[in-house]
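User: Just a sanity check before I run the rest of the batch. Below are the structure tokens for the first item. I only need the designed sequence back.
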């Protein structure tokens, strides 16, 4: 699933390609992907002639602020990613017009396509069809319970070490689960929580109550370091995620433990282990992370 670095990469790409563009039409073969308004015809009617005034990110949500006080939200969920380009319908299937990364097999699950006033298209490729699209009044979005409950953005300056300690002080649980809880810290999922903890040499199941000041500082520094590097590299693409031009992110060379079970730890040579807890997999080095 795309996490903060991938969503941030998508936002940067979209800003260059579709900011100030006006929606003129929309197509879908999986209308259930649009959750608000529930009626697709209504969605179609509402989005037409609206202009994109701002593109921003909150947690793993992509938000397009539109004219007339509306916002379009896209949550890519498991396998979704937004692409910009041109496609044509050929025997019932959309095919990228130009040769290149948009023809990558991972970019061919187009279930929602927006058409812009300059002839460009923005498509949501989503193999498993779990993505969520919502169009609503900006005020309504900002005041929604889901939005208000989101934890702080870890790359913002206001996310200081004191702030980090403060938000953990009244929480319980294992460090990996805490890092992945969007109501505690926004935007971190399984990939980056695994990578952050490997950097700190802390076991993913360690209880946060047992973390000392030095370990907390190390986790805090690692959050900033790993996410900043991943944003710089354009996220990871070993699975479905692709940038808006269809190309891959470059974090893969830095991926130390996530989905590397059985491979050697790059620090000590011990085999990376995969365990399950809380319904999710955790990847770690049993020698480095105790
Ligand atoms: Zn190791």
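Assistant: Here's the designed sequence for the first item:
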């Amino acid at each position: 699933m795309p996490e903060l670095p991938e969503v941030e990469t998508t936002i940067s790409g979209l800003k260059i390609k579709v900011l100030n563009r006006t929606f003129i039409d929309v197509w879908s073969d999986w209308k259930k992907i649009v959750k608000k308004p529930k009626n697709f015809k209504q969605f179609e009617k509402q989005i037409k002639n609206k202009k994109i005034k701002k593109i921003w990110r909150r947690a793993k949500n992509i938000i397009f602020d539109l004219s007339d006080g509306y916002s379009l939200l896209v949550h890519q969920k498991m396998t979704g990613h937004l692409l910009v380009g041109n496609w044509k319908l050929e025997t019932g299937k959309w095919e990228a017009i130009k040769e290149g990364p948009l023809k990558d097999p991972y970019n061919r699950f187009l279930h929602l396509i927006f058409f812009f006033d300059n002839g460009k298209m923005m498509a949501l490729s989503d193999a498993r069809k779990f993505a969520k699209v919502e169009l609503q009044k900006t005020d309504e979005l900002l005041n929604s319970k889901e939005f208000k409950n989101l934890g702080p953005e870890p790359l913002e300056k206001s996310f200081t070490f004191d702030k980090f300690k403060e938000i953990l002080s009244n929480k319980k649980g294992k460090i990996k689960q805490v890092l992945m809880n969007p109501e505690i810290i926004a935007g971190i999922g399984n990939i980056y929580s695994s990578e952050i903890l490997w950097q700190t040499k802390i076991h993913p199941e360690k209880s946060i109550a047992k973390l000392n000041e030095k370990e907390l500082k190390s986790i805090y520094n690692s959050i900033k370091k790993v996410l900043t590097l991943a944003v710089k590299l354009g996220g990871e693409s070993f699975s479905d995620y692709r940038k808006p031009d269809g190309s891959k992110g470059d974090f893969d060379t830095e991926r130390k433990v996530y989905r590397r079970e059985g491979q050697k730890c790059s620090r000590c040579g011990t085999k990376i282990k995969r365990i399950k807890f809380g319904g999710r997999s955790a990847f770690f080095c049993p020698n480095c992370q105790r």
